[in-house]
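User: Design a sequence. Structure:
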């Protein structure tokens, strides 16, 4: 019993430290740019020593990669939820209303994090390419068929454009705005 409580406290301390490191990292990247941020800067901002940083992350690149992966994983779960709603024969506006709190939490509440991560280019991955990868994987399930290259490109661009709009405007459009935009798109196609 005592060991479980001690393990829980250690777990909470680790999560708290990782939150401090991530929040400090986000602020520094937004202020100075990724290339100008050092582990010392992150540690000082988080009010921890470097050894504590290194107990959690190998370097700032691993930190950035983990944060990108965590965000993309959350985005993937929202897309999977959207796909499941689609399979329940929910219409687009209904799905949008149901997912609004998840989208708001994902994109608007985490705006600073997204802006910081969007500015980071790593050799192995970056936020944009990871979002596109997850989006492509989920589009097959959402459409219930494999889209051709043109359809995939068009849908990916539309969704990423909406993603960027939400980040820039910091608010979700209401259903009448969405309907109006879709009607406008359909008019262009007819």
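Assistant: Done.
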């Amino acid at each position: 019993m005592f060991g479980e409580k001690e393990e829980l406290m250690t777990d909470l301390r680790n999560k708290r430290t990782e939150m401090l490191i991530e929040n400090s990292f986000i602020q520094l990247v937004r202020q100075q740019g990724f290339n100008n941020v050092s582990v010392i800067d992150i540690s000082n901002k988080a009010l921890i020593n470097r050894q504590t940083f290194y107990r959690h992350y190998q370097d700032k690149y691993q930190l950035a990669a983990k944060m990108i992966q965590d965000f993309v994983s959350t985005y993937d779960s929202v897309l999977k939820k959207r796909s499941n709603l689609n399979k329940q024969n929910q219409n687009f506006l209904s799905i949008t209303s149901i997912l609004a709190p998840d989208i708001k939490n994902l994109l608007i509440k985490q705006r600073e994090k997204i802006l910081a991560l969007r500015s980071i280019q790593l050799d192995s991955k970056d936020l944009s390419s990871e979002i596109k990868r997850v989006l492509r994987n989920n589009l097959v399930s959402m459409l219930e068929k494999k889209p051709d290259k043109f359809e995939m490109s068009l849908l990916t661009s539309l969704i990423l454009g909406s993603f960027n709009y939400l980040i820039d405007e910091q608010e979700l459009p209401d259903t009448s705005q969405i309907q109006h935009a879709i009607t406008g798109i359909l008019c262009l196609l007819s």
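The chain has a mean pLDDT of 89. The chain is about 80% helix and 0% strand.
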